[in-house]
UniProtKB/TrEMBL annotation:
NCBIfam families on file: PTS_I_fam
Species this chain originates from: Paraburkholderia atlantica
Enzyme nomenclature, EC number: 2.7.3.9
The protein's name in its UniProt record: Phosphoenolpyruvate-protein phosphotransferase
Residues that, per the record, bind phosphoenolpyruvate: R301, R338, N464, D465, R475
Subcellular location: Cytoplasm
Cofactor dependence: Mg(2+)
Catalytic residues, chain numbering: H194 (tele-phosphohistidine intermediate), C512 (proton donor)
Domain named PEP-utilising enzyme mobile: residues: 160-230
UniProt keywords, alphabetically: Cytoplasm, Kinase, Magnesium, Metal-binding, Phosphotransferase system, Sugar transport, Transferase, Transport
Amino-acid positions noted as binding Mg(2+) in the UniProt annotation, renumbered to this chain: E441, D465
Family label: Belongs to the PEP-utilizing enzyme family.
């Protein structure tokens, strides 16, 4: 019987194949009481399984491909830490000793207890760390059962398989790379789960948070994963299958055709040169940036380097080598490094306690991004020194998120001067002319633009937050997602105003929010005067194709009509004319 499941799209594309189910061992363990004389033997069984998983993780780490995202090593470290954590190990042994539970029972009981603590956490990112503990327990249970590890299990599976699981550890996800699976579906996970992050970096169609998928889908069921929309179609009707096969081949064909554009210069039909840069999250993403033909990194979101550091921030050396790596991989092309943007939906493990973060009623309006950096000047100086040091190895620009006030800009510039002074004192090289820019992502910043134009070298419009703060829509809240509208006249006016005023003042300005990577909006942005876009590398060639087909002069009138419209139907009608000229 055909049915459709809905989840969260995390990695684009269409996959069609047979379901390969990975059953969670935790659902199916024996529960029995042991005799007092068996206690030490049972503890020994637990220790042996723990040791086996230890070895398994070591093998995974040693096998990591050279091009694996750098955070993969960090995921394995986190799992190693959990494997040795007293909360898991000692408490499980206590349950064996005091309650005389068999080890599988003790382990799943302890997992339940830990899970309950996590369920009470409001923060999405931290709540999702529960999945890491479940994945470690899963490995130990498999080791106790003498079962092969998840990865060993799937050797020999054919390449038309789509993995369906309750959850997949990121480390396993990396191993799947060599198995040429078509796609992934998991019951658990959100946009910020590690599994989602890795699926995206592997470029495999995936949907997560597809509730009960692993219970409803059976081994070998024919399934379609629509990674663009987060839809999973099980046992599709022949006509649906045909439609998706057609869409899949169209997409492949389009992708192949687009590859031809990679090395052509990006300019409009009237000869205006347009810069298309890449957004990256980890230094090694710079490879994908280069491969997509990007002419620089327009946004390096550095906060991902700071995640998985339990009780401390990333040290200066560690940060420096990450920034330097991205700069060197870009081989002379500019790299715009944004200072840490934590808070709201991206808290750090080490945040909280004393900094007001934990108690913030609305963290999106709280101590986020530059506000947090200015409240932690030593940490901020460390990051600034690390970025400046990387500027000795290529062209680096510093980008500051979430600025709104003149004094915030001034304090930031003071701290940059201080970081330079410290490097001078230590005799360490950096580019003294490194440019400093601001994200324009709070409506107040756009409206008070002269404050920024006077003080900064360049601007970058962060449309994701500009929309969130202009429309008072929490970008992470599904309940109001339908009101999150890039085409709201207020949003368009703020963008157009920023582009016009920056141009008039001779200050370079780019757009680095999701709007820049949406080919349906490319002409509108070009018509508003945008000449620098920054987006995920996978979107770059589609946007380039739109640029190559556009003529700025003919866009003037229809784009002016869009900006003069307030009624949604009028905006839509004018937008259609933008697409047709
Ligand atoms: C934005 O807000 O548009 C942006 C690019 O930054 P982030 O998505 O990291 O907040
Ligand atoms: Mg932002």
């Amino acid at each position: 019987m055909s049915f459709t499941l809905h989840g969260i799209p995390v990695s684009r594309g269409i996959a069609i194949g047979r379901a390969y189910l990975i059953a969670p061992a935790a659902l199916d363990v024996d529960h029995y009481l042991i005799e007092p004389a068996q206690i030490e033997g049972e503890v020994g069984r637990f220790r042996a399984a723990q040791q086996r998983v230890h070895e398994e993780l070591n093998v995974l780490r040693a096998d990591l491909a050279a091009d694996a995202p750098t955070e993969m090593g960090a995921f394995i470290d986190v799992h190693m830490m959990i494997l040795n954590d007293v909360m898991l190990v000692q408490e499980t042994i206590d349950l064996i000793r005091t309650r005389r539970y068999n080890v599988e029972w003790a382990l799943t009981e302890q997992l339940e207890r830990l899970s309950r603590h996590f369920d009470d956490i409001e923060d999405e990112y931290l709540r999702e760390r529960k999945a890491d503990i479940e994945q470690v327990v899963e490995r130990v249970l498999k080791a106790l059962a003498g079962a092969p590890g998840i990865v060993d299990n799937v050797h020999g599976a054919c390449d038309e398989m789509i993995v369906v699981a309750h959850d997949i550890a990121p480390a396993d996800m990396m191993q799947f790379k060599t198995q040429t699976f078509q796609g992934f579906v998991t019951d658990l996970g959100g946009r910020t789960s590690h599994t989602a992050i890795v699926a995206r970096s592997l470029g495999i169609p995936a949907a997560v948070g597809v509730q009960h998928a692993s219970a409803l889908i059976r081994q070998d069921d024919l399934i379609i994963v629509d990674g663009d929309h987060g839809i999973v179609i099980v046992d599709p009707a022949p006509i649906v299958l045909e439609e998706y096969s057609y869409r899949q081949s169209e997409k492949e064909l389009e992708q192949r055709k687009l590859q031809r554009l990679k090395f052509s210069p990006t300019q409009t039909l009237c000869g205006t040169r347009i810069e298309l840069c890449a957004n990256i999250e980890l230094p090694d993403d710079a490879r994908a940036a280069i491969e997509s033909g990007a002419t620089g990194v327009g946004l390096f979101r550095t906060e991902f380097l700071f995640m998985n550091h339990k009780d401390r921030m990333a040290e200066e050396e560690e940060q420096f080598s990450a920034y330097r790596r991205a700069v060197e991989l870009m081989n002379g092309l500019p790299v715009t490094i944004r200072t840490i943007d934590v808070g709201a939906d991206k808290p750090l493990d080490s945040m909280g306690g004393g900094d007001g973060y934990e108690t913030a009623v609305n963290p999106a309006l709280g101590l986020r991004a530059i506000r947090w950096s200015l409240s932690e000047p030593q940490m901020f100086l460390t990051q600034l020194r690390a970025i400046l040091r990387a500027s000795a190895f290529g062209k680096v620009k510093i980008l500051i998120p979430m600025l709104a006030h003149a004094q915030e800009i001034d304090q930031t510039l003071d701290l940059i001067r201080e970081a330079k002074r410290q490097l001078d004192d230590a005799g360490i090289a950096y580019d003294p002319n490194v440019q400093v820019g601001a994200m324009i992502e709070i409506p107040a910043a756009a409206i008070a633009l002269p404050l920024f134009l006077k003080r900064l070298d360049f601007l970058s419009i962060g449309t994701n937050d500009l929309i969130q703060y202009t429309l008072a829509i929490d970008r992470a809240d599904n309940a109001v997602a339908h009101l999150y509208d890039p085409l709201h006249p207020a949003v368009l006016h703020l963008i157009a105003f920023t582009l016009r005023e920056a141009k008039r003042a001779g200050v370079p300005v780019s757009v680095c929010g999701e709007m820049a990577g949406d080919p349906a909006l490319t002409r509108l942005l070009l018509g508003m005067g945008l000449t620098e876009f920054s987006m995920h590398p996978s979107q770059l060639l589609e946007v380039k194709q739109e640029v190559l087909r556009s003529h700025l002069k003919t866009l003037e009138k229809p784009v002016a009509d869009v900006l003069a419209s307030f009624e949604p139907e009028e905006v839509q009608a004018a937008l259609k004319r933008v697409a047709l000229v």
